[in-house]
């Protein structure tokens, strides 16, 4: 593996043998590549809504990203940050510039590959499409110090014009995955832009791997602009994902624990000879782990025949992925260390419960707020026992009766007048009754953090009488 110092020395040697100046891309190669590839670039606009799972507070904003069409029928490749935990991205619109005219289509987000920080989208159209698309060289690689061209799209102030910039491979990292590092910071309009090598071949796209906090650094390195070579995503182009992330998550296996790595200081404190393993910090009630006797403080050493030697935070994410990839209902053997003694147990994995971002939601147009079911992950984050039943407020419309009553996102509604609210269906039934009856005032029994209380809400239909 080439380390940083070796890469720099080789880069300087390359400059020395080229007369002190590194070779640049041939301008005719650049022009041909630009004319061929730039029509496949498109502007991807969307709306993103970020939710704080602890408070339910939301922030919504519109954004844009570069989309690269990789199939004539409309399969887009874009950056992986479109899909993150507690972030919903929707209202996708794709705009091509073909023969000087703009052509726009809606699109849907597909399942994100586990091993790459990229996203795929499928363009929606009632008629067959034949759009400009890029052709990758799936066999081509890059060499240290090789010049490359990156295509992208300038911002709205520059009318989203297509653009090109030159860069160079400053380092080649071969572990844990072959990675080509670029030398110039990437502007937003060039993230997921096609990369052209010195022979004019499209060899991949630019990007950033996820940070540790975002669940990354399992396969490569984060925080530095790099090239995703085309061979990494060839299979996804040949066989595109045909399910959304939400539908896939419903089939993921689940153990029901939170863990942390057994680092050297923990191993020394507990007088464990060897660091490495997963400390069970939390066991979720009524989960497979709880039902089969796993306890907080247990240390997982083996799972389904695989040794667990976790010593870093990113190893926790790898273990979570290992569990997800199992089949719900599968029996797995687990080796645990408890009070210094090793023992084994067999557990039957369950189906991963619905997460907050996938929860059913109801928009109460009359009262001006949307509410959601309380999912298991919200109960853990908000420290809610099973005795707390109701729905959680997700959004409040400005100027609505709900806002006038000082209702805020994150409040839990447990009753409305004489109606006890334990789930979303009961809320909808109560809302339908109030609308039919044109109730003058609704008294809400709510929970905010550890406090409970009453709020009075006056619907506007009372003026219609």
- Number of E strands: 27
Task: Give me the number of helical elements.
Answer: 10
- Taken as a percent bin, the fraction of beta residues is 35-45%
Rg (CA only): 27 Å
Seen as an oligomer or otherwise, the chain set is single chain
* Low-pLDDT sequence parts: 1-21, 212-221, 245-250
The separation of the N and C termini measures 79 Å
Main β-sheet description: 7 strands, antiparallel
Domain unit count: 3
Fraction of residues in helices? 10-25%
* Global morphology: flat
As for the CATH topology of the largest domain, it is: Thrombin, subunit H
Q: Structural class of the secondary elements? A: alpha+beta
At CATH level 2, the architecture of the largest domain is Beta Barrel
Q: Roughly what is the average pLDDT, rounded to an integer?
A: 83
CATH top level of the largest domain is Mainly Beta
